[in-house]
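dude i think i finally got it to work??
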Amino acid sequence: MNKYVISIFSLVLFAAISYQPGKAIQPPICISQLDTIDTSLFIKGNRTPKLLSNQFMLTEGPAVDSDGTIYFNDVADNKTYKYTTKGQLSLFKMKSGNLSGMYIDRDGSLVACSGTSHQLLKFDSKGQVTTLLGTNDFQPLNGPNDLWINKKGDIYFTDPYYPPADGSNPVIRSDTSKQRVLLLRKGQAKRVAIVDGTLIKPNGIVGTPDGQFLYVADINANKTYRYSIKSDGTLRDRVMFYNKGSDGITLDERGNLYLTGGEVIVVNPKGIKIASIQTPSKKITNLCFGGENGNLLLITAIKEVYVLPMNVKGIEKW
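look at this
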């Protein structure tokens, strides 16, 4: 990570192809990448996250509200927690539904993926839940994993298939080898669309605040893609943005993309790795920015949760 590696960029021509159901998107051409270090991301060079708690079983899905409070899940323990701007960690909801990815909508409600129940759920400030999308509303869902909500209220979410560890509540699909990125449109009769059905196992997902681009991490293909978002919400011009997959992903105000895995990898808008963040866990699942000033990076790492004040802010707060 601390080496400067010089490489020559290759000119790449990529034919823009809009996804159509039943028509595969052509594989992208890999772009050589230059590693460097951007120390300006960090406060006085501090790149060591602080342990917040290690009381959990499997942490995932952090999301931030407009006040900077961060919510996250303990998937295996079926609980959702919140971490306030005052530094207080508390239980938000017990038996929350083994939730994975979450996002706060413009109304302040917590929208969440439930892979075990194959649904998109919505929680109000008191933890009361309603179902936004289930298998009765659309063809059987594999298991919603992560999501992003644009300013119009449209929900993009990944729908990979992970067989239940205990064999319970399986979903039988005709073909689980190709899994999907779906779009749940707000306020339209035909709300659900498959915007990419050609990925191996799509996982982390996030879009830019201006609604122009969407990033999706294909964790089994070990690649992260970037799409252009068309005016109707569908996707086009898929390119391989970075040659690594990821579980959760997020963006900062500079347009840098944060990937998870054995470490946090920070990639600038040109697809160049510019920093990494290490935790003792080496098994990082997800992350998001929050806090009073929007610059507190919260990192979920299986049994542990870490926080790291940064010199940049996130883009999640409305």
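The CA atoms of residues 248 and 286 lie 4 Å apart.
im so relieved honestly
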